[in-house]
Each structure stands twice: as C-alpha cells, then as structure tokens.
Write a structure and sequence with these properties.
Number of strands: 14
Shape: globular
Number of helices: 3
Radius of gyration: 24 Å
Helix content: under 10%
Strand order of the largest sheet: 1-2-3-4-5-6-7-8-9-10-11-12-13-14
CATH superfamily: Outer membrane protein transport protein (OMPP1/FadL/TodX)
CATH class: Mainly Beta
Largest sheet: 14 strands, antiparallel, barrel
Order of helices and strands: HHEEEEEEEEEEEEEHE
C-alpha cells in the first residue's frame, strides 16, 4: 500500500473514531442509571442513600472493545427531604487510540408537591461536572513510519500533535413529573439538557463545541394481577445530528413481599432505533437490584459485528438507616 493510501486510511479511521466519540455515552438499561438520565432524579427513591454501578462492554467482535464504567451515589437532606443531591462518575474507553472520557458530576434536585397527598410531584435538577478527554497517539500508525517495506515505529510520524488531552466544565438541567398512587402504579416522565455551556472538545487548536444533549424519558409500573407488573419505558436522545430512540418493556414477577422479605424477578425486550434489539433480566433482593442486558446488533455494522453488540451489567443498593422512635409523652406508673 502506498504512503498516500495509508495516510488516507489513517485520516478515515481518525474521523470515524472521533466522530463516534463526539456523542455522549449511552446505556441500554437507561432506567438503571438515573442521575445520568436526568439530574432531577437525584434523591427520587425510597430510602436514605442509593448506590448505583453500571458497566458496558461492546463491539468486542469488531475491534478493541469499547468499555464504560459508571458509579453514582445520591441521597436527600436529612431535615429537608424535598432536596436531593448526588455525585456521579464515569470512565469510557474506546478504540485503538485508547480514547478515554472521564466525567465527574455533582447533582442537586428539588421536589415540589403539586397536591397535599403527594400523588402529583415535579422535580427540578441541575448538574455541574468536569469532563476530561484524552487519547494515546503512540497507538496510531502513520504513513511516514512506512519505510517502503514494512512499518517501522522508530521513524518520526511527521505529525504535530500539540496536545492529547482536554478538560472542560459541563453544565446541565433537568425536570420531571411523577404520578404516584403506590409502588405498583406509578408514572414518571422528564426532560434533561446536558452540555448547555457547549464546552470545547477540540484537541488541535480548532474549537469544536460539544453538542447539547437533550433527553426525554418515560417510565412506569402498571399492576396486571396480584404478582405480575408491567414495567414499560421510553428514552429519546438528541445530540447534534444524532438521534437515539429506545423503547420496550419488562415484566416483573414478585416472588415474595411480606414480613420484611422481598424478592422479585424481571425479564424484558427492548429496541433501539436502527441499531439493535436487546433483552434484559434482573432481580430485586431486599434492598439490592442486579440486572444484565445483551444487545443484538442489526445496523449496517452487521457484516463485521455478526449481530453481536454489547453486554451490560447494573447493580443498585439502597441504604435504609434505622430511625429510633421518639416518645412524645411519658406514662406514669400505677403506684404514683
């Protein structure tokens, strides 16, 4: 292959890598990463502290695996339960150049009750985060390193790479509405806006504003019978020219829910527009949730992916603190 063809191939690969990475990360189990979905979700749960972990591995059959790890924790103020707060972290790594994105975000939310019985509620949330991106140029192959016979990494690349890392501040806002009758009959919908300040993600002197990501979501629980619930969901994301629509439903079967014991299992089928279908399974065990999903790719990448997309895991634990009862009066003994 000539040097010119190698350079063209390199440019094409770089464009594909950076173009794909200019879109924010996504999750198949979008309802199991609540703060990433919308900052208004911070503190929106029953309990005192919620810990969430997510891991995704994809495109292992195509190239170097794309892997993403996310961790978050959120809670409510002790004396102001309508105020939620949380922190989230994720690390995303893609491609041969080990293109890595690290983001840490702080989130604050406020709940406003629309009715005295708490059936109708709205929440508002904001997040402020640090976004860091970097890549390893030593992993790339350049045309100038071809000596006419073979590739020689000791040769100069001929490229002037000024920096391989970038750190920016990111801002976001979200709002949600919740209709709550009981644990088996709820509806929640919301909208979130991320990267509102359009941080610069360019590496080589050129300013490339990061596109605003807008996310719409709906999720609910609907009781079918004494043990069975329908758990549908919908998630729509816009970011620049990218569009991602996900919808589907799980079915929940409660194994036991009495005398302080709680067990439930889930199974679902979901669809991502023009990209993949995925199945999900999960289980509630007391205060724990553990879930897994697998994507079956049907996009234009099928010849390379062989329909294999990615596997994803989620885990959640909600801590309930013991609150001792307070006696408002004293009982006088009989002998007085």
């Amino acid at each position: 292959m000539s040097n010119l063809k190698k350079i063209r191939l390199l440019i094409l690969l770089l464009l594909v890598t950076f173009e794909a990475s200019s879109q924010d990360i996504h999750w198949s189990q979008f309802n199991q990463n609540p703060i990433f979905q919308n900052p208004a979700n911070a503190g929106d749960f029953k309990g005192d502290i919620r810990f969430v972990g997510n891991y995704r591995d994809q495109w292992r059959s195509v190239t170097v695996p794309f892997s993403t790890l996310a961790l978050s924790a959120d809670s409510k103020l002790y004396n102001h339960r309508n105020i939620g707060y949380g922190i989230s972290f994720f690390n995303d790594q893609v491609g041969d150049g080990v293109f890595r994105t690290i983001e840490i975000q702080g989130n604050v939310s406020y709940q406003l009750k629309l009715t005295s019985d708490s059936v109708h509620n709205v929440r508002f949330g904001v997040n402020v985060g640090m976004n860091h991106r970097q890549f390893n140029a030593d992993q790339f192959y350049f045309g100038n390193q071809f000596n006419g016979i073979t590739y020689d990494p000791s040769l100069a690349t001929g490229e002037n790479i000024q920096t391989n890392r970038k750190t920016n501040l990111s801002l976001g806002f979200g709002a949600s509405y919740k209709y709550y009758i009981n644990e088996r009959y709820t509806f929640t919908g919301g909208i979130g806006f991320f990267n509102l300040n359009r941080p610069n993600q360019g590496f080589f002197g050129e300013k490339i504003p990061r596109e605003v990501r807008t996310t719409l979501f709906i999720r609910g629980i609907y009781k079918l019978n004494s043990d069975l619930d329908l758990v549908p969901g919908f998630n729509l994301s816009f970011q620049g020219k990218y569009r991602e629509l996900m919808l589907g439903s799980s079915v929940k079967y409660t194994l036991i829910n009495r005398l302080g014991e709680y067990r439930a299992i889930y199974a679902g089928l979901w669809w991502r527009n023009k990209d993949a279908a995925f199945i999900t399974v999960g289980m509630d065990y007391q205060s724990w949730w553990v879930g897994m999903s697998y994507d079956f790719n049907f996009s234009k990448l099928v010849p390379a992916s062989k329909a294999r997309g990615g596997i994803e895991f989620s885990v959640r634990y909600i801590l309930h603190r013991f609150k001792p009862s307070k006696n408002s009066h004293r009982i006088c003994p009989d002998y007085i």
